[in-house]
Amino acid sequence: MSKMDFSPYGRQKQIGEEYTKLLNGVVVSLWNVYGVEKDPEKSHVLPGLIRRFQEAKEQKLPTVTCWGDGSPLREFLHVDDLADACLYLMNNYDDPQNIINVGSGIEVSIKELAETIADVVGYKGLIMWDTEKPNGTMRKVMDVSRIKATGWEPKIGLREGIESTYKWFIDYRGEARGMDDLEGEVDEILKNNCCKGCSE
Hints:
- The structure is a single chain.
- The chain has a single domain, classed as UDP-galactose 4-epimerase, domain 1 (Alpha-Beta Complex).
- It is elongated, with a radius of gyration of 19 Å.
- A 3-stranded mixed sheet has the order 7-4-9.
- It is α/β, with parallel strands linked by helices and 200 residues long.
- The protein contains 7 helices and 9 strands.
């Protein structure tokens, strides 16, 4: 990495990246992943907005207030696309010295995101913006040119992904699990989808 991050979280990531390179593995960089099994009580942005608009709908609240002015830009990646990308890279990418970004590369404003989620949820009230609160980083979009050059593209559009995530949230509300609970399932998926060369 170009500069050292001495926070515990940053150092943990850097050590993991360097160790993966030593093992000739591929380091995948990502952010703002959403989808089923993402606990809306512990998550930010998209899952959190689904929960807030659903609660506002149920409570018949006339408004939902979001921080900032809604102008910051973000990108989002459905967890199924992430899994697909990881399996694809195992079989088609062989450059362990280069970190590869996995994302949609498609920008959406927080305002547009909130309006889309409200529409999917069926919330009919007003969305208010508290400009006294911070916007946060104005733009967070990854350069996904490297993975696109390999031929991989995400398949799930944002609205489609929000709709399936919302359906899961309603069907399994109260049973949402955090990411820690998924470790065993991830291990099982990797065992059952062994990449070429893993068993050689």
